[in-house]
Amino acid sequence: MAAHVRLGVNIDHVATVRNARGGAHPDPVRAAREALAAGADGITAHLREDRRHITDGDIAALSDLCAEAGRPLNLEMAVTDEMLAIALRHRPHAACLVPERREEVTTEGGLAVAGHEARIAPVVKALADAGVRVSLFIEPSPAQVDAAHAVGAQVVEFHTGRYCHLTGDDRAVEFDRLQAAATRAADLGLEVHAGHGLDYATAAEMMAIPEVRELNIGHFLIGEAVFVGLADAIGRMRTAMDEAPR
Predict the structure, then answer these.
(1) H or E segment at 52?
(2) How far is 215 from 208, CA to CA, in rounded Å?
(3) Can 196 be counted among the known catalytic residues?
(4) Contact assessment for residue 157 and residue 190, using Cβ atoms and an 8 Å cutoff
(5) In the 8-state DSSP scheme, what is residue 244?
């Protein structure tokens, strides 16, 4: 029987809607609670430098919620002293190190680990020493996988945005790149996750990569929730993942 592939639900964009007008509605913590009830295996949230969606208060409340529920919180964070201090204060189950540029609308690619090992390795070590599982959000390339292993990460999460936007032969080539990178990561003892831009169809396609153990999906699910509700959107995603060939 194929291993259960975990679904992490990113609730950032519930906070984006809240912040567009101010106030407390819609509440991302309520969204996280409903996501867990609907079958999410964990919650993902990105605390950005400019606090454009998730805030420090959200992280505190999400930490409490996930602890009470016995489910993991995956904190996406830039490689900065500020974010490291916050992560060490809250000690989430996992921290995913991501690239961050203030002017970007959303994360545009993977973290450049190769060539920046000296900057990233101490952050990875500090988190790991505090009992936080460390993931690196990277492009599916052998150089980045090898660098992730070299700095001591336990997990790599492959950026699937490029795959989701390609079509035809180009998409097939990118799938092969994802598969090769996943094989390399598993050979090095790294757990493999994937995320960014995934919808029902592309999430199901990721199930054909046997090394994948977790998908983290946010924007699509929050958008679908406008039309069908969050529980139904997560339920449909769970079904798409479970029924896809492995």
Answers:
(1) none
(2) 13
(3) yes
(4) no
(5) S
Q: Structure tokens of 190? A: 């790294």
pLDDT in the model for residue 105:
47
Is residue 149 part of the annotated active site? The answer reads no
160-173: per-residue pLDDT in tens?
Answer: 999 999 999 999 99
Select from 199, 191, 203, 183 the least CA-distant residue to 243.
203
Active-site choice (46, 149, 159, 193): 46
103 carries an active-site annotation:
no
Residue 81, both tokens? 């002293």
Segment 11-25 mean pLDDT: 95
| pLDDT tens digits along 95-122 | 999 996 655 445 567 999 999 999 999 9
SS3 235: helix
Give the three-class secondary structure for 2.
coil
Token pair listed for 178:
């994802």
| CA neighbor of 107 nearest in space, from 44, 60, 34 | 44
Query: Is 50 exceeded by the pLDDT of residue 9?
Result: yes
CA angle 64, 86, 145 (to 5 degrees): 100
Which position among 53, 90, 149, 196 bears the catalytic label?
Answer: 196
**CB neighbourhood size of 30 (10 A):** 16
pTM of the model: 0.95
- The number of beta carbons lying within 10 Å of the beta carbon of residue 238 is 17
13, 34, 53, 76: which is the annotated catalytic residue? 76
Dist. CA 95–CA 123, nearest whole Å: 10
